[in-house]
Specification:
Layout lengths: L4 H13 L5 E2 L3 E2 L10 E2 L3 E5 L2 E9 L10 H24 L5 E2 L5 E2 L6 E9 L6 E2 L1 E4 L4 E7 H11 L2 H14 L5 E2 L3 H13 L10 H9 L12 H9 L3 H19 L4 E6 L8 E6 L5 H15 L3 E9 L7 E9 L6 H7 L2 H4 L15
Parallel strand pairs: 5-8, 8-11, 14-15
Antiparallel strand pairs: 1-4, 2-3, 4-5, 6-7, 9-12, 10-11, 13-14, 15-16
Helix pairs in contact: 1-3, 3-5
């Protein structure tokens, strides 16, 4: 299906900042309970992120815009988009939604029943002031509205999926719904960052190392564990800048320790939110899967974690150049275990992994 320029460029933003694994823009299907010719289509773009479905309706200007902000076109397209976003939400409950191809070329099942976020993108450079938050009576809710340029600025400034999602809530709280608004989107993102982290002064390359992890770590998964790929990637996307800062520091630590041939299990993160994953960072001289698994279960028991991602650094060759970072993920509800309790109370283990690192969301600058 040929895409409009507006749709393709918005999809590019989604693949860049939310990653192709969670972005879907080929969403035509025929429900199993309807005839073959009764084709349906979900939104122009869907991001399947955590427990959230982010649906986009993208409106591009085909003819010449009207001077003065093209306001009639804007109003008409916002109303059309609102109805289409509601129709997408209704399809989730009315029909059995099939698997779709994501931005990486894998067929995946979209989640149902989570939080639904509707975003309208207006691709029209003539737009001046416009409504940023629009009400929808059909669902007694609200949708976000951006020009393409404003949405691009927002993503480039915030970078991290978690911050982009939180910014949408921030935006909704400070902008009056259904009123034409002239606020500067970039200044508003800076206000959000200052409120959350204490600063908006982030360098353009601060997250390069972490983004490298996201784009290369699949090849570092332990053989036989590739089915965990999306689960682990989802954990990374849940981190904010404070979490990324802590994560990156600890990865650097274990690489340095592994280079010096020192074993270490003292780098870790245990977030306050028990629904989030803990991290255990190990420096080693190789990858002993059974040992690491036992250590992870002990760590999870002591820290009362239900999820844990372990990152293991070691060097494959004596020349200390080619390091590996391998990953193992375990998800298991915490429950009392007499043997593990006894081990945790032993002198050697009692001093480990205590106190837990509590992330404050503030970033050292």
């Amino acid at each position: 299906m040929n895409k409009e320029v507006s749709e393709e460029r918005t999809s590019e933003i989604a693949r860049e900042f939310f990653l192709g694994e969670f972005s879907f823009d080929e969403l035509e299907y025929v429900p199993s309970n309807l005839s073959k010719g009764d084709k349906k289509e979900l939104a122009d773009l869907i991001i399947d992120y955590g427990d959230k479905t982010i649906a986009f309706q993208i409106k591009g200007r085909r003819g010449d815009p009207v001077p003065g902000g093209d306001r009639k076109w804007v109003e008409r397209k916002i109303n059309d988009a609102k109805n289409q976003l509601v129709n997408t939400l209704e399809q989730y409950s009315k029909y059995e939604i099939p698997q779709f191809m994501n931005g990486k070329g894998d067929r995946c099942t979209l989640k149902t029943g989570g939080t639904y976020i509707g975003i309208i993108i207006l691709y029209n450079e003539a737009i001046e002031d416009y409504k940023r938050i629009v009400s929808c009576n059909r669902i007694d809710g609200q949708f976000q509205c951006f020009t393409y340029n404003d949405f691009k600025v927002c993503c480039e400034k915030l970078v991290i999926p978690r911050d982009i999602i939180e910014y949408l809530e921030f935006r909704k709280k400070i902008i009056q719904p259904d009123k034409i608004c002239s606020v500067d989107e970039e200044l508003m993102t800076e206000e959000f960052l200052c409120g959350k982290y204490g600063t908006s002064n982030f360098g353009p390359h601060e997250l390069d190392t972490f983004r490298w992890f996201l784009k290369t770590y699949q090849s570092r998964l332990v053989e036989g564990e590739c089915n965990q790929y999306r689960d682990i990637l989802q954990i990374f996307l849940e981190l904010d800048r404070a979490g990324i800062d802590a994560f990156s520091q600890r990865v650097t630590n274990i690489i340095d320790l592994a280079r010096k041939k020192k074993f270490s299990d003292s780098n870790y993160i245990v977030p306050r939110d028990k629904n989030s994953s803990s991290f255990l960072f190990l420096a080693s001289n190789g990858f002993d899967k059974e040992y690491i698994e036992r250590l992870m279960f002990l760590f999870m028991y002591k820290t009362k974690s239900n999820k844990c991602l372990s990152v293991v650094a070691y060097f494959e060759n004596e020349d200390d150049v080619d390091f590996r970072l391998d990953w193992m993920y375990i998800e298991k509800d915490w429950e009392y275990d007499e043997l593990l309790e006894e081990i945790c109370n032993s002198p050697e283990v009692k001093k480990k992994w205590n106190p837990a690192l509590i992330l404050t969301h503030k970033v050292n600058k």
